[in-house]
Amino acid sequence: MESMVTLNSLFGGIYEGKKVLVTGHTGFKGSWLVQWLHMLGAEVYGYSLDAPSNPNHLALIKVEMKSIIADVRDLDTMTKYFDAVQPDIVFHLAAQALVRASYDDPVETFSTNVMGSLNVFEACRKTKSVKAIVTITSDKCYENKEWIWGYRENDPMGGYDPYSASKGCVELLTSSYRNSYFNLNTYNKTHNVLLASGRAGNVIGGGDWADDRLIPDMIRAASQNISVNIRNPKATRPWQHVLEPLSGYLTLGWRLLEQNVSYAEGWNFGPEASSNLSVEEVFNISTNHWDKIDAVFNPNLAEHHEANLLMLDCSKANKLMKWKPVWDINITLAKTIEWYKAYYNNNEIQTLQNINDYVSSAQKQRVIWAI
Questions:
Q1: Can you state the angle between helices 116-125 and 75-85, rounded to 10 degrees?
Q2: In this structure, are residues 46 and 75 in contact, taking their beta carbons and an 8 Å threshold?
Q3: Neighbours of 129 (CB within 10 A)
């Protein structure tokens, strides 16, 4: 299926012909990103472990790209690969991304997320072609006080569980490298690299089969005609379609490649306040789109502490970057559930259609990256 909208001109046409390296390209967000980058005309490269699930989104979309299967903790292999590729920009998404898994193996979580990020920055520092780095952390990087308003980019880093703490550490590491090696005061004097970070909320969409995530758990159960056990129905999160933060990351990369030093900072990319819903509310809306979805609410299944209330304040990106979300929670859930229904019922992959629909919606709303 070919693109139905003109994509090469998006994001100022900055990605057409660029060498873009994505770490974590076999993961959920990474696979959607490489598909979109390919549609934008970029020359896409990947560095990641094997896909974390079967089925997996990357194998289903069959995107044209070059990649290596390797660990971000392997600095020697990474440095050699970066040197061979000579990328213009690096999107760093590779991570251990699950809260409950971080309780089971905190050493792997911290070593992958923190030391892996350190290795990415080192490989970039040693690769002359790199002009921009966008590292992806999480809304959980903030010290969560369970308050009723969203966290801003200048709020303290923190993290109760190992995963959240590791993402806070990555933000501190990013700041350290920006100050020590990619200092804005010496840009285009001693170095030519701009480094920024993106923080997103709970990302959903088709093609995610990770364990311990609400939508994949619901979908797996529905595909087997069983009920899903939901352990924390009152937990509130900033739900957003995967294309929302990706549009933010791509906008950020666009501005960095334009050599705009003011964008080399941390940025929140979250939904409108109306999309901050409880797990139970998300479940109830989802049942409207697939009658096979059923659940048993069982808070006793919660083995570890998990945040109950977490929201992002995206005023900075809204005002300074002119970025804004495109799809509300109802469209987001409809697109997500329909993606899975098409896959399970018709063996159909709607990823390209979703990207086209999202771009079309953004163009109608005159969003900055789409015009």
A1: 40
A2: no
A3: 15
Which domains can be identified in the chain, with CATH numbers?
16-370 (3.40.50.720)
Query: Please, are residues 83 and 14 in contact by the beta-carbon 8 Å criterion?
Result: no
pTM for this model (two decimals):
0.94
What are the pLDDT tens digits along the chain (371 aa)?
344 456 889 999 999 999 999 999 999 999 999 999 999 999 999 999 999 899 999 999 999 999 999 999 999 999 999 999 999 999 999 999 888 889 999 999 999 999 999 999 999 999 999 999 999 999 889 988 777 678 899 999 988 899 999 999 999 999 999 999 999 999 999 999 999 999 998 899 999 999 888 999 999 999 999 999 888 888 888 899 999 999 999 999 999 999 999 999 999 999 988 888 899 999 999 999 999 999 998 765 555 555 556 788 999 999 999 999 999 999 999 999 999 999 999 999 999 999 999 999 999 999 999 99
* Kind plus residue range of the DSSP H or E element containing 250: helix 243-257
Give the DSSP per-residue string, 16-46: TT-EEEEETTTSHHHHHHHHHHHHTT-EEEE
